[in-house]
Amino acid sequence: MAELFVDGEWRAPRAHRTREIRCPADGSLVGTVAEGTREDTEAAIAAARRAFDSGPWPSTPASRRGDLLLRVAELLERDRDTYARAESLDTGKRLVESEYDLADVVACFRYFGKLAGQHAGRVVDAGPDALSRVVYEPVGVCGLITPWNYPLLQVAWKVAPALAAGNTFVLKPSELTPHTAILLMSTLTEAGLPAGVANLVLGAGAEVGAPLAEHPDVDLVSFTGGLATGRRIAASAAATVKKVALELGGKNPNVVFADADFETAVDYALTAVFLHSGQVCSAGARLIVQEELHDELVDEVVRRAERIRLGGPFDPEAETGPLISAEHLAKVEKYVETALAEGAVLRTGGRRPSDPRLAGGHYYLPTVLDGVRQGGFAVTEESFGPVLTVETFTDEDDAVRIANDTHYGLAGAVFTMDASRAQRVANRLRHGTVWINDYHPYLPQAEWGGFGQSGFGRELGPTGLGEYQEIKHVYQNLRPGPSGWFRG
Ligand code: NAD
């Protein structure tokens, strides 16, 4: 049984608490893991503190830290089948998606491996009688808390830059999807990471995550997850004025103008929201379509949504998988119920599938809700499930106004064949990533920021204007065409 990884070794937790991890696709037992307590978390923090204060890692030359990350990337590639299978069993997602995710994880370690050591600092002119230099130093002990939707990728986005910069850390992955984080500890050790630099405590948020936000020996807490948890973490971290990075939710607009390429717009309307059954923070859950295109576009989206085939990780015909848990399925059901009570019109889905093949898993049909009320529950709250809402707009100003009418600001897209309009609208969208004639492409070298309540605290770029600027990544596909993700 997997245990806690502290100070370079696997240990038994103080209290013997276990959790069965079951595959969301069919309920089969994947494994049983031992979970830690607050005391175990404190022991892990102490190990990370010692490794930072007196271990070799923070003062290891940055380029050597980079070499280690490159070695990790090689080992991940060597073991990709084991990792991808473990990820699919924990999440229920298709094996091919876990393979794509693993490629992104490898790219992430490689990117930060190459970046380490490239920015040693700079000399600032202070006249002939002084030497003035600006240097970059690690923050210290990092508490890293991650969600279940892209388990290893979320971990990689935190672990790789934290290590590149010379920090030590305690990682708490989602309690629902621990297995790839367990595997990663062995990979980091094999790559030669000194004991105590990487520590892993499994367990629930209140028991293991909360102490990471509260403890005075943790210098930074980096969290990806829901808005409510993020608020709690920021409040706890305030007591010790920790550095805080929050990557939170999104209610992301997908704006389609009447002059968009029709096939491309339909294809991406589906991919934006039904990829991984909508369990994606940047999912394009709000389709905002120009009035004159509404009927034609929505009819086609509904027709194609009804053809999406659901299935487990190893079903070669499956196009998307289950929701992560029975609790999450109930939450999505409640979201749809509330949206319907508010006046939304159900165009398709809105229930669990009746196919007996899927009876053992947490499946929900791809759902389209038309006629939603602007500013209402359905378009402001995240469902984090396979649910698309449809709103309409009249002109460019109206599109921007509706798309920005959210307390989030994570991501969004615009579909139009008018290149000038595409850039104008992208400039006006208050969202951290804006795709043009595309949805979802991710580049490790581009910032992933969040406007509004989608988060804060990530690297703020080279302008020197620090926290007074938001960073937006605008990505334009210059050869728009269907992705073919869903076969149709
Ligand atoms: P969650 O907030 O429930 O849990 C995330 C992590 O926080 C888990 O490890 C959980 O155990 C831990 N946690 C829970 N309570 C805690 C507490 N009191 N103190 C410390 N840690 C605690 O989120 P989730 O359900 O795992 O993930 C879904 C959410 O994550 C969605 O809102 C989604 O939009 C968001 N998300 C955002 C991004 C992004 O990049 N912005 C990426 C993926 C997911």
UniProtKB/TrEMBL annotation:
Pathway: Amine and polyamine biosynthesis; betaine biosynthesis via choline pathway; betaine from betaine aldehyde: step 1/1
Keyword NAD among UniProt keywords: yes
Pfam families tied to this protein: Aldedh
This protein's UniProt keywords: NAD, Oxidoreductase
InterPro entries reported for this sequence: Ald_DH/histidinol_DH, Ald_DH_C, Ald_DH_CS_CYS, Ald_DH_CS_GLU, Ald_DH_N, Aldehyde_DH_dom
UniProt-annotated catalytic positions: E247
Any one GO MF annotation of this record: oxidoreductase activity, acting on the aldehyde or oxo group of donors, NAD or NADP as acceptor
PROSITE patterns the record matches: ALDEHYDE_DEHYDR_CYS, ALDEHYDE_DEHYDR_GLU
Domain (Aldehyde dehydrogenase): residue spans on this chain: 10-474
Family: Belongs to the aldehyde dehydrogenase family.
Name of protein: Betaine-aldehyde dehydrogenase
Species, as recorded: Amycolatopsis sacchari
Lineage, highest ranks first: Bacteria, Bacillati, Actinomycetota, Actinomycetes, Pseudonocardiales
